[in-house]
Specification:
It is a single chain. The protein is an alpha+beta fold. The protein contains seven helices and eight strands; from the N terminus they run H-H-E-E-E-E-H-E-E-H-E-E-H-H-H. Strands 4-3-2-1-5 form a five-stranded antiparallel sheet. A three-stranded antiparallel sheet has the order 6-8-7, with helices on one face. The protein is elongated. One of its GO terms (cellular component) is membrane. Its main location: membrane.
Length: 204
C-alpha cells in the first residue's frame, strides 16, 4: 500500500492523517443524523405534540407546521419558520400549550372606586367582560367568555383588587404576548371610563 502512495506522489502520513480526521467528522455527522432519526421516531410514536400545536422549546415558540424524521418545523409568532433538530427537542424542556390545562392570560389591577362606590359591582364586571369579548383583537382567539371578579373589596366597597382571566383557543396561543398587553391596557381604560382610579397608574 505504501508503494502505491509513493507511485502516486502522495505522502502516506498525510493521507492517513486526513483519512483519520475525515473518519471522525463522518462519524460525528452520522451520530447526529442517527440521533435526529431516532428522536423523530420517538416524537411520532409518543406524540408529545402534533401539527398545529403551539409549543415552546428553549427560545423558540410557535405552531408546529411539520414533523419529519430529522427535524420539526415551527412557525414563530414573528413569522419566520424555525427548523428544530428532533434530538434538540427530545433533550430540551418542551412545553405544549395546546394540550396543556393552562391556556389563559390574566391580569390583576388595584382599583379605587369613585366617591359613593358602585351600587352593583356585578354590573361593572359584566360590562368589562362584554367589552373585552367585543374587541377585534380577541375575536377568533377566545375559548370562552372573559372572567372578571374582585378578589378583595375594601371598606364600604371603596377599594378593590380586580382579577381578569381570558381563556385562549389554539389561535390565541400564538399571540399571548400581544394579547396580554392589550388586556392590561383595555382593563385600565374601561375602569377609568367608569370613574375608577388605578393607583399604580396614577403613581407613575
Amino acid at each position: 500500500a505504501l508503494q502505491w502512495f509513493r507511485f502516486l506522489g502522495l505522502d502516506a502520513k498525510t493521507v492517513l492523517t486526513f483519512g483519520g480526521i475525515s473518519g471522525i467528522a463522518f462519524g460525528l455527522a452520522a451520530q447526529s443524523l442517527v440521533g435526529n432519526f431516532i428522536s423523530g421516531i420517538l416524537i411520532l410514536v409518543t406524540q408529545p405534540f402534533t401539527v398545529d400545536d403551539w409549543i415552546e422549546c428553549e427560545d423558540v415558540q410557535g405552531y408546529v407546521r411539520a414533523i419529519t424524521w430529522s427535524y420539526t418545523q415551527v412557525e414563530t409568532e414573528e413569522g419566520p419558520k424555525v427548523f428544530l433538530p428532533n434530538s434538540a427537542i427530545v433533550n430540551a424542556k418542551t412545553s405544549n400549550r395546546t394540550q396543556g390545562e393552562v391556556r389563559a392570560i390574566e391580569t390583576k389591577v388595584p382599583v379605587l372606586f369613585p366617591v359613593g362606590g358602585f351600587k352593583d359591582c356585578n354590573e361593572l364586571l359584566s360590562g368589562l367582560e362584554d367589552h373585552l369579548a367585543s374587541l377585534d383583537a380577541f375575536k377568533g382567539a377566545l375559548a370562552g367568555k372573559p372572567d372578571a371578579h374582585f378578589g378583595i373589596l375594601g371598606s364600604e366597597v371603596a377599594t378593590g383588587e380586580l382579577f381578569v382571566e381570558v381563556d385562549l383557543d389554539n389561535k390565541g396561543l400564538g399571540k399571548t404576548t400581544r394579547l396580554n398587553s392589550i388586556l392590561n391596557i383595555e382593563v385600565v381604560k374601561y375602569l377609568q371610563s367608569k370613574g375608577c382610579t388605578v393607583p399604580l397608574l396614577e403613581a407613575e
